[in-house]
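Margin note: ligand = adenosine-5'-triphosphate.
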Amino acid sequence: MIGIVAEMLSYPFLVRALIGGILVSLCASLLGVSLVLKRYSMIGDGLSHVSFGALSVAVAVGWSPLSVSIPVVVLAAFFLLRITESGKMKSDAAIAVISASALAIGIIVTSMTTGMTTDVSSYMFGSILAMSREDVALAAALSLIVLGLFLFCYNKVFAVTFDESFARATGVRVSRYNVLIAVLTAVTIVLGMRMMGAMLISSLIIFPALTAMQLLKSFRGVVAVSGVLSVAGFFAGMVLSYVYSTPAGASVVVVDLAVFLVFVGIRMGRERKRKKGEAWRAGEKDRKRAGRETRAERP
Amino acid sequence: MGLLLKCEHVDFGYENQDAVVDVSLEVRTGDYICIVGENGSGKSTLMKGILGLLKPTAGRIEVSEELKRAGIGYLPQQTEAQKDFPATVFEVVLSGCLGKRGNRPFYSAREKNAARANLERLGIADLRKSCFRDLSGGQKQRVLIARALCATDRLLVLDEPITGLDPSAIQEFYQLIRHLNREEQVAILMVSHDMANIVHQADKILHMRQRPLFYGPVREYVKSRWAREFLAGEDAAEEKAGNAAEEKAGNATEEKAGNAAEEKTGNAAGVSADGKEDAT
Ligand SMILES: Nc1ncnc2c1ncn2[C@@H]1O[C@H](COP(=O)(O)OP(=O)(O)OP(=O)(O)O)[C@@H](O)[C@H]1O
Ligand SMILES: [Mg+2]
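Resulting structure:
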């Protein structure tokens, strides 16, 4: 195992992929806790499709991919937030509309210009070669901001996630936090997408939070555990992908799925045990009562 | 009786449509005021205005220095997302102290003690470490009240607090609110559709239909035309409140309204503007 990791670290592009990927998965998992709990799970999926559309256009026109897709995706995130906050459309419907439209535009532009080049297909399914030096630097800056947010504004993030109207009534600038989370999510998606693939990036947001929620009872615990799970899952997925030559993004998702299933299993086991215990205690009570009654009847 | 809050002829609206028109209202220490009215009559909007989440389009709201310092405790309606939210009871209650935090990032020992004290006060100290999603509806409600009390113990604003509680939990809830109101002098401002109970609980009623139809003490409200229409479910059909409706409504409130029902009918409109004089 150590041998394999050492071997992986001897390739500079893999080192970049590991560092960048770990930073991006950390950000995605922390933001994911808030997004999943606020019923915005699918925002990652929607934004990644928007990012795909933007990237295809950028490739067709010959612009640099990041400088086109980051602003476009941030705008889309704003737009989604505004639509759902004003109550004009439900968030799942709004996301579906935006993501399908962006995907359609991307596909048409691609087919009219370059055709399905390797570039475009790697946006769909991800490529381990995608992480450039600039991407890693951007990922580092992003994770500093996200970590800062969760460290120093933790209580506000909790309040905004748990109960927006109460937070607003106690003087928290709720919309400011919503916008901040949306923008950070957008950048996370754009960065992670080219490695994980547009189809798979949303799993980085959803899986760790959902897995941690199975067993943990406190918000603090869920945040901490999903961060750890996400980083560990990404690393394990990369090793898997290296050893079996499977696509990186898909391997990470499979590892996340396995961990999720294990957590669900443990939770169900615990619940069954508790139910059994309760049933046993209830039965005991009945038996005692029955005993008392027969004794009472005897004389 | 300290004045906590005073609304003078306030209007609230969204975009360019009025939702609340010309409400005058005073809240004093120890008041127990219920706001009733049909769906869409502007109750929640008025609450948001009082909490400072909406700016009045006309009139003004005066908030006493005392209340400004202490803040308002708010019990919003429970949201869908909270049903499976992983958070301990203590985390939820502690988040009530957020308003006093300002921009300092972490809670101090004093705020943690306040949260503990409020858990004791509501009899849920043993649930401290439990997960919010595993609690029963009544327990959740207590936790949210404890959180609101962390924000203040001067004025609690509750928006339809009993939705989803079973009858025994509802009674428990009213007892708790009454206790806070009587023994600890917490002023209560509550939106509710539960007419049958609140006429026994509240001191004053504000009946809204965009503008206030009635504002005054409960004992006058139950005799008013608005109460009878509302209790009989005739509120949607004000215009056709003919004899038939009046008879039916009269039956429904028999024990409360008694024989005074007919005589008092004309009185309601007169009291509606500011019935608070009668109360004090
Ligand atoms: N965010 C909003 N934007 C625009 N109009 C709104 C908004 N919220 C409420 N309204 C409108 O304001 C009016 C009053 O709504 P409000 O929510 O205050 O009613 P309510 O008395 O609380 O009703 P309910 O008993 O159903 O809770 C309604 O006509 C509603 O359509
Ligand atoms: Mg309402």
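The longest strand of chain B covers residues 3-14.
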